[in-house]
Amino acid sequence: MHQKGIMDEKVILQHLMEGSREALAIVWQEHSANVLNLAFRMLKDRDQAEDILMDVFVQVPKAVQGFRGQSALNTWLYRLTVNACLMKLRAQKRHRELEEEKLDTIIEEVLGKEETRDENFDAELLEKGLSQLPAETRSMLWLKDAEDLDVKDLAEIYDMPEGTIKARLSRARHLVRDYLKERKDHG
Amino acid sequence: MANKIDFSKLERLTPREDSWAKVCARLDAEAKALPVGNIISIKTWYSAIPIAASIALVCLTALLPALNRTDVTETISINSSAPSEVMSWYSSLGNSASDDFETLEETVGFSYLIKE
């Protein structure tokens, strides 16, 4: 099944490179929701996420000419999406979330505390917890824990060593859990 | 993986119904807006340059022997056109022990130039 998937993807890629609209439609059916949700996790805005989704798919026919097929198609699409979102965030100067240094300080305070697994949080609280993270780290956590991508794929998407990805994910989880725990204790 | 954050309770979005149509419309508009001059992509140029260079090289190889052919070139010997004064001055250049400039008589040189 997996082999078949790879074969199909190669055929689709070939057609995409030839400019086939049908191939693009197949990619849309398969991956548009994933791209949209990743963009939404990064931008926290439905309309902007839709814009990014369309931007990504409009640039696919051109961008695919430079794609060597060394990674999976979804990994490549996620990379396009992350880059597009980061560009948008920078352009709008809305990237005012916690910066890495501030995050590190918070993490240092958090680490050492007993990590408790709390599954009884609500979605709204989780959204708030996630919003404490920088957009890039938030998207990383989403791809890992919601989309089940492995660290190797994330390293490719974010162009970072696997060790850095693991460390960031670990810190992000700590931060989110701590936020949730704190809010629950106070609420 | 026990360490994972549980995202299952979060809303999962689906693209709006008209999004794909908008993507198609933008792609169509881009295709229409593409000027004729841009149809030849950079990649095409990359391959065109060595081909053009090869053609130029072949042309030069063919043309150079023709240019060097002496039988079709009209050669006018200086002996047949220059007066004897000019020839005498020319052949004695550098043979004199004097440090003075060896100049050609102005009138002789001038008349030679007018003749030419």
**Spatial separation of the terminal alpha carbons of chain A:** 48 Å
Question: Approximately how much helix is present in the residues of chain A?
Answer: over 70%
Number of domains of chain A: 2
- H-E string of chain A: HHHHHHHHH
**Number of H/I helices of chain A:** 9
From the alpha-carbon coordinates, what is the Rg of chain A to the nearest angstrom?
A: 18 Å
Could you tell me the mean pLDDT of chain A?
A: 83
Number of helices of chain B: 5
Unreliable residue stretches of chain B: none
Beta-strand share of residues of chain A: under 5%
Low-confidence stretches of chain A: 111-120
Biggest sheet of chain A, in brief?
A: none
Shape of chain B: rod-shaped
The overall strand count of chain B is 0
The CATH class name of the largest domain in chain A reads Mainly Alpha
Architecture of the largest domain in chain A in CATH?
A: Orthogonal Bundle
Distance between the termini of chain B: 100 Å
Give a short synopsis of this structure:
Chain A has 9 helices and no strands.
Report on the architecture of this protein.
The complex is a heterodimer of chains A (187) and B (116). Chain A is mostly helical and 187 residues long. Chain A has nine helices and no strands. Chain A has helices spanning 2-17, 21-43, 46-63, 73-92, 100-110, 123-130, 135-145, 151-158, 162-186. The radius of gyration of chain A is 18 Å and the shape is elongated. Chain A starts with a helix and ends with a helix. Chain B has 116 residues and is an all-alpha fold. Classes of the chains: A mainly alpha (187), B mainly alpha (116). The A-B interface holds A 21, 24-25, 28, 32-33, 36-37, 40, 46, 49-50, 53-54, 57-58, 61, 117, 119, 122-123, 126-127, 141-142, 144-146, 173, 176-177 and B 2-7, 9-16, 19-20, 22-24, 26-27, 30.
